[in-house]
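wait is this the right file?? whatever heres the structure
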């Protein structure tokens, strides 16, 4: 993802920044515009990394309406944008040069009204109109040129390292300023489009709550999340609040700003939450993959690190990790021969032997390196081979038993199991007279943090209560 706009942590606002007078246009691709061409070239890689596109006409219409309002008040209303909903549970949104904007299912699940979604999209549109991806790349090239030149004029290793660190800090500050610029432009766009300008700091606060929840609930892979590229800080939230206040004081229609909550909730009702049938999902301590037609049990103390179209990865507090994936398999090769083909470094060839798992032919082996030991199992089914890799530090207790119990539970998914364990979805319900956060949170399925997750996805503080007649999100079948 060469041109993802990186967003860092601490900010110093520079009011010299403004939207570019010459934003990159996607339609310039036909005229050999290299930036738009490169943005378009990244699109297939983005889809592959994030589980492809999530096709939902209702959601697409909702986003198109929001983007249309924002474009009309943007610095360049003639620019074309390509907005894609990514089929990923990761909470993320980002932009590529050429007008490509991406938002994940996870991001939509965290938002609570149309104005918050508009805040995210306006922020990304601002990155594009200000040419942040291009400017950051140019800055990186400019900074990288100095150490390479200096290395030929007798600098010591320490001086070279100091130069490199200084360049990294300069680039980080450059990116931080870009982030504040995108916040400022985005909040102004929100206001002009008729949305609540306070939606921006409100959603940033939701992101902080998401960060706290994630820290207690899972050992997730940060690299695909919004917080990896868009860290929120108290300084950034204060900046967004102050910007929204300033705009609100000068806005003639301050009392008519729209959050459009009902339209948003209607749009996300029945949207898949968490893993999808295309990437697999966790239900009742089982990994279920309808697309591949397989399932297996997950040890109870393991938490998901990553679940994408590439692989499912989980780990335990004892630092035992499991990876499960599938790749094309040549029909003229045995499972044992596949293990010996060089797929795993450090393989103990003498340990390779055929086994049977739930009536399916398979192969098992061990591998080792300086720090880790590995239990490896492969199971070929038709033209696909399923691969389990369980890793643990040397001398880990119960390592082999954990690996064996998991791999021996692997089996083909029956129609009955699939009906019993469907993917989870967001359901929108109306609060009744006697409903409380406690009793509604118990409707949340497959999470030990029911109340915390309920408050998180509904934007509720630890002390807030429910209003009769309001609509809230729950996670269930």
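ok assuming it is, sequence goes like this
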């Amino acid at each position: 993802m060469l041109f993802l706009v990186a967003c860092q942590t601490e900010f110093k606002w520079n009011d010299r920044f403004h939207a570019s007078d010459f934003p990159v246009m996607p339609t310039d691709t036909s005229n050999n515009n290299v930036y738009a061409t490169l943005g378009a070239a990244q699109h297939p890689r983005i889809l592959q990394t994030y589980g492809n596109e999530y096709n939902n006409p209702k959601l697409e219409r909702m986003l198109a309406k929001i983007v249309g309002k924002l474009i009309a008040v943007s610095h360049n209303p003639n620019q074309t944008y390509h907005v894609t909903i990514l089929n990923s549970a990761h909470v993320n949104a980002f932009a590529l040069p050429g007008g490509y904007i991406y938002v994940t299912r996870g991001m939509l699940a965290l938002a609570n009204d149309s104005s918050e979604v508009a805040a995210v999209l306006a922020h990304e549109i601002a990155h594009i109109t200000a040419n942040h991806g291009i400017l950051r790349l140019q800055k990186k090239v400019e900074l990288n040129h100095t150490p390479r030149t200096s290395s030929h004029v007798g600098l010591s290793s320490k001086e070279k390292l100091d130069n490199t660190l200084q360049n990294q800090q300069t680039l980080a500050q450059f990116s931080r300023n870009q982030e504040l610029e995108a916040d400022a432009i985005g909040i102004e766009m929100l206001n002009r489009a008729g949305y609540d300008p306070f939606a921006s700091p409100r959603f940033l606060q939701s992101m902080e709550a998401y960060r706290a929840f994630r820290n207690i609930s899972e050992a997730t892979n940060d690299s695909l999340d919004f917080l990896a590229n868009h860290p929120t800080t108290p300084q950034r939230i204060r900046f967004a609040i102050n910007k929204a206040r300033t705009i609100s004081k000068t806005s003639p229609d301050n009392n008519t700003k729209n959050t459009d909550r009902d339209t948003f909730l209607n749009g996300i009702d029945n949207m898949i939450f968490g893993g999808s049938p295309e990437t697999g999902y966790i239900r009742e301590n089982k990994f279920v993959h309808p697309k591949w037609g397989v399932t297996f049990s997950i040890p109870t103390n393991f938490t998901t690190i990553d679940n994408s179209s590439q692989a499912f990865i989980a780990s335990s507090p004892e630092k035992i990790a499991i990876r499960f994936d599938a790749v094309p398999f040549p029909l003229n090769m045995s499972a044992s021969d596949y293990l010996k083909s060089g797929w795993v470094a450090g393989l103990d060839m003498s340990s390779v032997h055929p086994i049977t798992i739930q009536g399916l032919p398979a192969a098992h082996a061990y591998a080792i390196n300086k720090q880790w030991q590995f239990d490896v199992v492969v199971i070929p089914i038709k033209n696909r081979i399923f691969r389990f890799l369980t890793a643990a530090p040397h001398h880990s207790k119960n390592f082999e038993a954990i690996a064996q119990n998991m791999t021996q539970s692997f089996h083909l998914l029956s129609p009955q199991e699939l009906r019993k364990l469907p993917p989870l979805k967001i359901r929108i319900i109306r609060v009744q007279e006697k409903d409380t956060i406690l009793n509604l949170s118990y409707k949340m399925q497959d999470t030990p943090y029911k109340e915390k997750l309920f408050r998180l996805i509904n934007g509720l503080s630890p002390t807030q209560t429910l209003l009769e007649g309001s609509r809230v999100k729950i996670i269930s079948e």
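The longest helix spans residues 157-192. so i think its the right one actually
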